[in-house]
Amino acid sequence: MESTAHHEAVTSESVDMDAIMQQVAEHKGCGTSSGSGKSSCGSSAGESELPPEIWEKVKNHPCYSEEAHHHFARMHVAVAPACNIQCNYCNRKYDCANESRPGVVSERLTPEQAAKKVVAVASTIPQMTVLGIAGPGDPLANPAKTFKTFELISQMAPDIKLCLSTNGLALPEHIDTIAKYNVDHVTITINMVDPEVGAKIYPWIFYKHKRIEGIEAARILSEHQLRGLEMLTERGILCKVNSVMIPGVNDQHLVEVNKAVKSRGAFLHNIMPLISAPEHGTVFGLTGQRGPSAQELKALQDSCEGEMNMMRHCRQCRADAVGLLGEDRSAEFTTDKIMDMEVNYDLEARKAYQAVVEQERQAKVEAKNEELAALADETSDIKVLAAVATKGSGLINEHFGHAKEFQIYELSAAGSKFVGHRRVDLYCQGGFGDDTALETVIRAINDCHAVFVAKIGGCPKNDLLKAGIEPVDEFAHEFIEKSAISWFKTYLEKVKSGEIQHFTRGDAEIRQGALIADEERKVCDGV
Ligand code: CLF
Ligand code: SF4
């Protein structure tokens, strides 16, 4: 049954897809936005930098638009347990590490349970706009469950965008079905385009009822990934490519991957850090393969940014994630709870709520642009990073001690740019501060000059200052980018007047484990 409003909208859009994809291909990386002359890069590209048809597709997708991720939520349903390949950064006890950080596992659902869950979440969280299937194995190694789930959801919740994430091995054979179910967005994890590099990442694939190993396995996988990408973009389906950065294995090679996927029409490239703690029991974890540092990751993302749109706000979320990208509300929607929930899918109420969110977002963009105008004549080439404690909505609205992550912005004469996030241990332990956690927070934001917070106590303030990071609480509950630009203007003035000296900060650490809250959740039951 496909005659839904959602499907009709998508079908009418598809008429002009050739032109749209041409426009996507022509939109390369840093575009210069009209008016201010400031650049806006990658997935931070806003309404003024994208063709209107593309903007319509990405404006409320939290992964495809950096701006949207402050306001709109996604959810995953874990309906796909099996996988058809083996990655050296994966332990099958956990969720697919192509879109999830290892160390957490999801509750498996039937398509019917999944559909009920989507309706329950959409009724509770009206800003939830996207449903993704990202595991816990590979969605296309479980095609019947995956497509049944999409079918049910498109009937029950027609305004929700459908999203799929796959390793790509089975992609070419399922393109028509993906198009048939109006899946709006597809992610393919592509870690290499050279089978010799691939053989170091993938020990085997399972293809045509046979297990194939080594370079031949990587060759088949790569061919299917790239062919699948071409077939999707030919049909006007927006594609994102995820790549796991594995230092010494594929880090340099990812520049080549970036070029290969861009030339095949990928809209967005998401280079993610390898997470390889030994306790996850992955091949890379056990052989001591390290992940990249924060600056190594940023340098690679920066070097690819001139080529195409880069995603930098990925949270490597779990296969049953629910909520804004930086939060995890999955514990509110376990199967037991959903089955008892009375749900009322009110499309009009969802639309009305989203219209309010859109207004908030516009206000944020306007505030930023106003502040940006004051930097118009600025010629300094100083760039600094700033960490921000936020609960969402683009506001500095989180206390230092309550932050589970800090968002990182790069500030320069061009304005502010979101460049990543750093997951941290909670400093506040209910009445007292955890000094060990504070050390890890400082290591996680050690490349930043300032940290913006809604509130901070005296002790962490002093320790941050000693570490060379300025705690800033004067912009509590104000818009992040407007405030950060305002602070940066003052910083430049102080440097120019000689009041302070600008210096380059060091590197920072990317946290290797799962969040504490996740570790307290259910034990693994294996695939
Ligand atoms: Fe999910 Fe992936 Fe769709 Fe997003 S996640 S299937 S594209 S709706 Fe997003 Fe999560 Fe990163 Fe994935 S933050 S892991 S990129
Ligand atoms: Fe694991 Fe995902 Fe790789 Fe399959 S595709 S082996 S589930 S990381």
Automatic annotation (TrEMBL):
Keyword Heme: no
SUPFAM superfamilies, alphabetized: Nitrogenase accessory factor-like, Radical SAM enzymes
Cofactor: [4Fe-4S] cluster
Compositional bias ranges of the Low complexity kind: 30-49
Region (Disordered): 26-49
Family note: Belongs to the radical SAM superfamily. NifB family.
Name of this protein: FeMo cofactor biosynthesis protein NifB
